[in-house]
Amino acid sequence: MSRKFLLVDMDAFFVSCEVAARPELKGKPVGVVTGAQRHGVVASVSYEARKYGVKAGMPTYKAKDLCPSIVLIPADIVKYAYISESIMDYLRENFNKVEVFSVDEAFIDVSDIPDPVETGKEIKKYIKEHFHIPLTVGIGPSRVIAKMACELSKPDGLMEIKENEILEKLGDLDVEEIPGIGERSAEALRSIGIRTVRDLWITNEEVLVRKFGIRGKWFKDMAMGKDAGYFTLLENGLQMKSIGHSETFPRDVINPDEIRAYLLYLCEKTGRRMRKHNLMGYGVSVYIRYSDFTGNGISKKFSKPVITSTEIYQNALFLLNRILEIKPIRLIGVSVFDLEPLKLQLSLFENKEREIRLEFSLDTINDTYGDFTVKRARLAGLKISHSVIPPRGIPR
Ligand code: DCP
Ligand code: CA
Q1: Which of 103, 154, 166, 224 is 20–30 Å from 384 (CA)?
Q2: Residue 29 confidence (pLDDT) above 80
């Protein structure tokens, strides 16, 4: 039986959470800022502000330059996590197969639902009425196509792309628009003359496999909406923007050794999940929130991939030391981004072979006997609470 997926994705999520509480901001250029006041970054941008060229990830001063009338609001992560959880609960209560994909995106398997467009309309109506959050729904024969339908119809849209409409509706898009094909892969595809979704359709599978291995087949299947059967984005993590963990401490923490032990724990968890999904990353980020509700985050990109928990920890510690202020901490988070499928090739290994082998065998032990059966001495005695915010890209 053919499959069908419906993606629910909130529009300008953080901004929409703020506008829901302050309706006078509706229709205005608004941005939500994370990080310290002077070095803040705009994490979410209203569609009105996007018209001025303001984009997520921009420093606040640049956003102000481009759009002097923009209203900037400091992020309230706990509020967004709460709204996110409430929306996801509503979806889980009403549908059997819901995959929470990030803080504001969820896939629903609607293969058995006779009229998914009608379902999409109902979901939109409910979320708008109860949470005052605008959203877009995309429906397709695979998660990738559902996501592309969603991107095409944002904001406040709803689009279904059926299997026989893919080429007509998506054929002219750049390969980079296919979630799961990153900048690097797109560049490599372009180097052999494949620029668009249509080019992937007409390129012989063998050519792709010869050049990219099994990924070549994925590229083509993703472009054709044929990946639903054997490959879920969640399982493969190809579309995950990042993998990470955060912890709210049971009490304020100020002791540097304890902070480092928590950081190590989070890096171990993150590394383990990354390896489980056969991924490696080219960037690490760290964020902290103090008990006075201020916070800071920092990230770094690398030319060589990060594979082991030890590497994640070394980099995270370096970043943490650059932003840490001496005041009580409430939350700490780590994530690895720019993910790619793990390639165990010699050039990436270099001197890391022993470390990689060790970590994979620790994973096996912990998978067999339970989480953290084997753990580093530094972690002994640490009491861990729960994450407040689901990491982007994958459910908790
Ligand atoms: N986010 C963030 N940092 C980023 C990207 C996103 O903190 N670099 C946060 C803010 C967003 C939320 O995650 O509101 C969801 O991310 P999306 O990429 O879905 O962006 P938006 O929901 O803001 O906009 P869109 O309407 O394009 O989905
Ligand atoms: Ca969104």
Answers
A1: 103
A2: yes
